[in-house]
Design goal:
Length: about 350
């Protein structure tokens, strides 16, 4: 017998969102890990909010929603709120009841601006990393940087003296950061990724990855300039050295093959497993003291793992071209994307170990 195509909605539903999500869905393991992290951050959230006044969006829900934005490559808060309104999966992950109204996208953005800063993002990242402690190498690491396109156009890069006429036609003009700055994002810098390529208003994102499973153990964003990648790598190694945590080796590509960088690593008792740049003027800073060991070749084979992390963060995590302006905001977004990458990887490692 043919079934009826009834369009009348049911008044009551006895199936919860928890029951509707498949038991093997990958977000289940992620939600469990995230809830544990957020419980440990409860006191930090209390310090951010006032004791009285109107209730805002729960910070736990804000962070879960931002993770969904990373996992599902949602380009805007408007799209995130829209999908949270009709998706059972999104409602379940964020923690919304079936009949609970979803926030307005402008309210969501305003609450996010108040809650999220570099300190909160760093705390969240560190707690996620703590859950992955069993899978981390504490000796061998790789460092690298990637270009992050700023949310600013070339025409916004104008003279600092207030003359806006130079923004429309820049042919034949000499523009430097001493005389020019972006009117929409002053922290962005004109940066050329390689010879013959177009200079773009950009930031540089830096990552330190452990070599055992390719998890991100440190991340930061800096202004884009020619020495930023090496400076950030030295800073991340120094932070670990200051905590009396040893770093056995640090792998890096040819851009890090300079005498200053290699000498700093050796002063910090770190083996510089940097790819040799034999075409560099003055020759490579890496000599037989390093290359004669078999561990050097092993680190060179492990180094491309970091490109997978950058690939995920750009194609999925949404940091190819950021929609936030200012170095502090881009930095916390980069940290959240790195934490999302680790959260996605940890359950897979757990399943393999089991």
């Amino acid at each position: 017998m043919r079934g009826r195509d009834g369009q009348q909605g049911s008044v009551f539903s006895y199936v919860s969102a928890e029951e509707r999500i498949p038991s093997e869905h990958p977000l289940r393991a992620v939600r469990k890990a995230v809830d544990e992290v957020l419980r440990s951050m409860s006191k930090k959230f209390d310090a951010v909010y006032a004791d009285s006044g109107r209730h805002s969006i729960a910070p736990e829900r804000l962070l879960r929603a931002l993770l969904l934005q990373c996992f599902y490559s949602l380009r805007s808060e408007r799209m995130l709120v829209e999908q949270s309104n009709y998706s059972w999966l999104f409602r379940w992950f964020v923690g919304l009841d079936r009949d609970e109204p979803v926030w307005n996208h402008a309210v969501f953005s305003k609450n996010r601006e108040r809650l999220l800063n570099q300190e909160v993002a760093r705390s969240f990242f560190d707690r996620v990393l703590k859950q992955a402690q069993a899978y981390l190498s504490d000796e061998h690491f790789t460092g690298d940087g990637t270009l992050i396109e700023a949310w600013a156009s070339q025409k916004s890069f104008q003279k600092k003296d207030g003359d806006a006429a130079g923004g429309s036609d820049v042919r034949g003009q000499k523009r430097t950061h001493d005389t020019h700055a972006s009117k929409t994002d002053p922290d962005a810098r004109l940066y050329r990724k390689g010879q013959g390529q177009e200079a773009q208003l950009s930031y540089l994102g830096h990552v330190r990855m452990e070599n055992r499973h390719g998890l991100i153990v440190d991340a930061m964003v800096t202004h884009a300039d020619g020495t930023a990648e090496r400076d950030a790598a030295m800073l991340m190694v120094y932070k670990r050295w200051k905590k009396r945590q040893s770093t056995g080796s640090l792998g890096a590509d040819k851009a890090y093959d300079t005498h200053d960088f290699v000498q700093v690593l050796r002063d910090l008792r770190v083996r510089p497993h940097v790819t040799q740049n034999v075409n560099r003027a003055g020759g490579s800073a890496i000599d037989r003291r390093t290359t004669r060991h078999a561990s050097y070749d092993i680190r060179q084979r492990k180094r491309p793992l970091i490109e997978r992390a950058f690939g995920w963060m750009k194609s999925v995590g949404g940091i190819r071209k950021v929609k936030l302006r200012g170095l502090p905001k881009v930095d916390w977004l980069f940290l959240m994307s790195a934490a999302a990458f680790n959260l996605w990887r940890i359950p897979k490692l757990t399943a393999v170990e089991a």
